[in-house]
Amino acid sequence: MNQSLSIVILAAGKGTRMRNPRPKVLHPLAGLPVIGHVLATAGELAPTTLVVVLADGMDDVAEVVGRLAPGAQVAVQEPQLGTGHAVMAARALLPGRGTVLVLYGDTPLLSGTTAARLVQARAEADAAVAVLGMRPPDPTGYGRLRMVDGRLVEIVEERHADAELRATAPCNSGIMAFDAARLAVLLDALALRPEKGEYYLTDAVAAAVDRGWPVIAVEGPWEEGQGINSQAQLAEVAGMLQERLRGRLLDSGVTMEAPGTVFLSVDSIVAPGAILEPYVVLGPGVRIAAGAVVHAFSHLEGAVVGPGCSVGPFARLRPGADLEESARVGNFVEVKAARLGRGAKANHLSYVGDAEVGAGANLGAGTITCNYDGFAKHRTQVGAGAFIGSNTALVAPVRVGAGSIVAAGSTITADVPDDALAVARERQHTLPHRAAALRARLAARRGR
Ligand code: UD1
Ligand code: CA
Questions:
Q1: CATH number where 386 lies
Q2: One domain, residues 175 and 299
Q3: Mean pLDDT, to the nearest integer, of 267-277?
Q4: Which residues span the domain enclosing 203?
Q5: For residues 229, 233, 237 and 238, what is the CA-based torsion angle, rounded to 10 degrees?
Q6: What whole-number distance in Å separates Cα of residue 75 and Cα of residue 29?
């Protein structure tokens, strides 16, 4: 643990450019809200103090922060008068010594490695401020680092920057490390910018330079500094993150024929030797073992897929789906909160919810667990080796014993003992020659 590191995450901004009532930092990104990525990066640095700055009424964000980073404290900034003002709001919670690292809630791709590099560079130079600079292909919207003789002297917001500075200067990622002791002085020095009615944290650089305090810029990979201000930027960041996640899986030995069509979550665990076919989506909480194949167009979340399993094409595994070794879930099958034992099969057009399916059991095409009566959910148990005929409705709570056979088309409402044969459907009536007779009568009626 770094004894003297505090981290402040700024997330009180309204995010109006997102044009969406959902708080900007709660938009989902690879299975985690945007701010979850920043909290994870902060967590990697093991700070002694972690403060998240939120606006009044951002209770939903505070709730997510509390869940993902129980040690974090929330500071309320009201009203929102800019990034400098946001750090002022956290001031009372920050120790007066060590390093204060400021992260932005809307900059989720920053890695722990780069953040640590900035913190270390600040300490080594004993700088009052260290700024993470970057050179994105499209610098629109970013503040610019004005360098004189290779030294950072000022950060100029784009709206105040002249054409030359805009075209040539590195951009401000927004991520900055401060000497805690000098931060207090710098915050006091910030003046309200009348153009936007804001205190810019970026003005702390010029304030430090004015005092003759050392200031440094550290350049980092631009991808990590990409901020999210609009839906387009959210999509861009999501794309970059997917690239990163896919690359990791490919490097580790997962086979993907068309990785660009596979969508992953940050917590996706796919073992080397597994195959993800094209157009597979892994939501949060998925674990796939070696030798498993997820066929095309399958959607998984909160699911465990055991070794050698086959899923899809067009399968949906919802939270609590647990497929043991060599189980098979085929096309148009939905599985939720259900365990399929070793080698169990549900190959076609089924719903398996709130169920326990024993090893080697076979759920025929169209098997449906009727788990919900409009008020509560009930469980279905199918014993090992049972054979459920096609188009069977299993009305839960119900238990079908091991080794039993259920006739196709049955509606099972009572438990079936082990090794029994259950038939629960209307007996068939066959009337010889009646089809021809009926057809003749109908034709006559139509006057032919
Ligand atoms: C800011 C920087 C800009 C930098 C860019 C990087 C300033 C003045 N400008 O611009 O130099 O290139 O980030 O992405 O700092 N926030 C608050 N309270 C506020 C205002 C903002 O908590 O009153 C938070 C926001 O929630 C956001 C972050 O601070 O997470 C940045 O705010 P934003 O308005 O997006 O700043 P930019 O215009 O992007
Ligand atoms: Ca921003």
A1: 2.160.10.10
A2: no
A3: 98
A4: 2-225
A5: 110
A6: 24
CA of 153 to the centre of ligand 1 (A): 20
163 and 248 both lie in a single domain: no
Residues 6 or more apart whose CB falls under 8 angstroms from that of 427 comprise none
Question: pLDDT value at position 448?
Answer: 65
Q: Do 200 and 271 have their domain in common?
A: no
Helix H or strand E segment including 75: strand 73-77
Would the pLDDT of 351 be above 50?
yes
Same domain, 250 and 374: yes
User: Is residue 216 domain-shared with residue 288, that is, in the same domain?
Assistant: no
Q: How far is the CA of 44 from the centre of ligand 2 (A)?
A: 22
How many Å apart are CA 133 and CA 385, to the nearest integer? Answer: 62
What ligand is nearest to the CA atom of residue 171?
1
Cα–Cα distance measured from residue 161 to residue 375, given in angstroms and rounded to the nearest whole number: 62
Find out whether 197 and 80 touch, Cβ atoms under 8 Å.
no
Report how far residue 329's alpha carbon sits from residue 338's, in angstroms, rounded to the nearest whole number.
12
Ligand 2 (single-atom ion) residues, CB below 5 Å: 106, 227, 229
- From the list 160, 348, 429, 433, the catalytic residue is 348
Strand partners, 177: 101, 130
Residues 238 and 210 in one domain: no
pLDDT at 1 over 70: no
**Cβ atoms < 10 Å from Cβ of 232:** 10
- The reply to whether ligand 1 has any atom less than 6 angstroms from the CB of 80 is yes
Ligand 1 atom nearest the C-alpha of 10 is 22
Return the closest-CA partner of residue 69 out of 97, 44, 94, 102. 44
| Catalytic site includes residue 348 | yes
The protein residue with its alpha carbon nearest to ligand 1, atom 16, reads 13
Q: In the prediction, which pLDDT does 249 show?
A: 98
Give residue 67's identity as a one-letter amino acid code: R
The model's pLDDT over 97-110, given as tens digits with 9 standing for 90+, comes to 999 999 999 999 99
Q: What is the tally of structural domains in the chain?
A: 2
CA 142/CA 236 separation, integer angstroms = 16
Query: Mutate which of 58, 104, 146, 192 to test ligand 1's pocket (most atoms within 8 Å of Cβ)?
Result: 104
Distance of CA 15 from the midpoint of ligand 2 (Å) = 8
CA of 87 to the centre of ligand 1 (A): 11
Contact 16, 112 (CB under 8 A): no
Q: Tell me the whole-structure pTM to 2 decimals.
A: 0.94
| Within a domain: 435 | no
Q: Which of 34, 83, 233 to mutate to test the pocket of ligand 1 (most atoms within 8 A of CB)?
A: 83
pLDDT value at 2 more than 70: no
